[in-house]
Design a protein that fits this description.
Chain lengths: 290, 276
């Protein structure tokens, strides 16, 4: 049914989406690149002289950049490990026969729907606060010294909060994948004398690889841009201890009003995200085509 | 041959799964409970579980002091508005790609997905300055535009995976019965496409409701949706746990309930149809 006529109609129907996305990508991107080559601070009115790579060398040589880069990596990898491992374990648990499975699923999935600012504030105040938080009460109850999570281990605490938000997502997707696993295959393996561990590693794990790939891809997209959780808990501090790349660029542009340096940082963030994206897309391509 | 599962084993599974589930859910439960306490009870040590004097006072205070409903309404307008506009743009595109696939349809879809890889912070500065120049900062329209664009790829992808499952043969049958193109679309295809469109709408409202990068950076007092409204509680004055809890409960309740109904679509939507 794909006539010349319908092809033209199809192109016409697709073009608004394509043009909008293209505009959304290219116009701001072009502006970011342009600004990144200027000396441009909102606090200093007047000319914006062209300065070439100055903003880049300033941004890249700032020790905060190295810290932010490492923090970004730790945040992404830390949350990925916790959520994927936790998600597999929880998925296995929820895949068992039990009473009230639907309700347990609802309980487990709930954190995913909590907006980032709410979950960060609830954890920060009602759990991690060293004076009035539940963790502090629990520590005192056990005769231990309360621990000030967000000032003594800020990045770890944020990893914990973000993992709580994303664990449901990983669990739900891995559980869905597990439920599509052919039970007869598992039973046949059991009849042939395969123990629970070899059944898990030789049948379940290969079956899950596609779902795990998808979880990693999607979570990485979101985790590279973690922002709200940092803003409302630590403001990137103490010092730069919990500043990631997104937060650093935000601070340069909207707190220090340095449009030039902020834009250079934005370009760096885009380049790094693209490196990750190419890597991921290749991995995904391999896994999804199969 | 189904395996028999002893009820003892089932009981053990049940106990473990419920404990883990309640543990994960606990922060939400605790927030809801705290929202009904007085400020003094909210920080009592040892913590009070259920045995307190339940009060609605915090909800009243939150509404009076910071005008919760205004921000709630901003959230509704922004999330529903951006979803519906996105849908209007995406339906034709997804429709064409699903029913008249070309050689480059797959590439086009992958390219759309790749726009999601663009870190928002990379375009924060120009968007902020542009919005400042044309007066879109701190407006509902401004946020609707941005959220429509960032969620468009997801909407197209989701719709595409749903539309592709509509059997095309049914069109042939309708044509044999003498249906014109208009009848074809309205009475044959549309009814089959509606469930997919509904799930797409649901998922995107959830995503837009919880979006926190652009809402925090592009709004102030006027157009702030709930994500940004709650952030104002990050610099507390005096005792505020109970009020924070009440505000939080009101911010998450509507979407939590919607989310529970859309569990199944969630997996499919967020994995771009790769996991069903």
């Amino acid at each position: 049914m794909a006539t010349q006529h319908s092809r033209a109609a199809a192109r016409f129907m697709i073009s608004p989406s394509v043009l909008l996305l293209l505009g959304w990508m290219l116009i701001p991107l072009g502006m970011t690149i342009y600004f990144s080559l200027l000396r441009y601070n909102l606090l200093m009115p007047g000319e914006h002289p062209f300065v070439g790579w100055e903003n880049y060398s300033y941004f890249l040589s700032d020790p905060a950049f190295k810290t932010a880069l490492i923090n970004t990596l730790l945040l992404v990898v830390g949350v990925l490990i916790i959520t994927v491992v936790g998600g597999v374990l929880l998925g296995l648990l929820l895949d068992q026969a039990m009473w009230g499975q639907g309700i347990v699923r609802i309980l487990v999935i709930a954190p995913f729907f909590v907006m980032p600012t709410v979950s960060a504030l609830v954890w920060k105040n009602m759990f991690m606060n060293p004076v009035n938080g539940l963790f502090a009460y629990a520590a005192k109850f056990l005769g231990l010294q309360p621990y000030d999570f967000l000032s003594q281990a800020p990045l770890m605490s944020i990893i914990g909060i973000v993992s709580w938000q994303w664990l449901p997502f990983a669990t739900l997707i891995l559980l869905t994948a597990m439920q599509s696993l052919d039970q007869e295959q598992l039973e046949a393996a059991e009849m042939d004398g395969a123990g629970p561990f070899s059944r898990f590693f030789y049948i379940t794990v290969p079956h899950l690889s596609r779902a795990v790939t998808v979880v990693i891809l999607i979570q990485t997209i979101f985790l590279l841009s973690i922002f709200a959780e940092i803003l409302v808990t630590t403001n990137g501090g103490p010092g730069n201890a919990s500043t990631n790349l997104t937060y650093l660029v935000y601070a340069e542009s909207l707190l220090r009003f340095d449009v030039g340096t902020g834009s250079a940082g934005g370009v760096v963030a885009i380049v790094l995200a693209n490196i990750v994206a190419i890597f991921l897309m290749r991995m995904i391509g391999k896994n999804l085509d199969a | 041959m189904a395996r028999m599962i002893s009820s003892r084993r089932k009981a053990v599974n049940t106990a473990i799964a419920w404990s883990v589930g309640l543990l994960i859910f606990f922060p939400i439960l605790w927030t809801v409970l705290t929202s009904f306490k007085t400020e003094a009870q909210a920080i009592a040590d040892p913590p009070i579980w259920f045995n307190f004097h339940w009060t609605l006072e915090n909800y009243v205070t939150v509404q009076e002091r910071s005008n919760y409903f205004r921000h709630f309404w901003n959230s509704v307008v922004i999330s529903v508005g951006s979803t519906l506009i996105g849908l209007a743009i995406a339906v034709p595109a997804a429709w064409a790609m699903a029913f008249v696939p070309g050689k480059r349809t797959k590439d086009l879809l992958m390219w759309m997905l790749s726009t999601k890889m663009l870190p928002p912070v990379g375009v924060l500065v120009p968007i902020y300055l542009l919005f400042q120049k044309v007066g879109l900062l701190d407006t509902q329209i401004g946020l609707i535009i941005v959220l429509t664009l960032i969620n468009l790829p997801i909407i197209v992808w989701m719709l595409y995976t749903y539309f592709r499952e509509i059997p095309v043969d049914i069109l042939e049958a309708a044509r044999m019965d003498g249906a014109g193109l208009k009848d074809e679309v309205i009475s044959v295809l549309l009814p089959m496409a509606v469930p997919g469109m509904a799930s797409t709408v649901l998922l995107n409202i959830i995503l837009a409701w919880n979006e926190a990068f652009w809402t925090l950076n592009l709004t102030a007092a006027k157009a702030a949706p709930l994500t940004a409204f709650i952030a104002s509680y990050s610099s507390p004055e005096g005792l505020f746990y109970a009020k924070l809890s009440a505000a939080s409960t009101m911010a998450i309740a509507p979407i939590l309930i919607m989310g529970w109904f859309s569990q199944k679509q969630l997996v499919r939507g967020l994995t771009f149809g790769a996991v069903k």
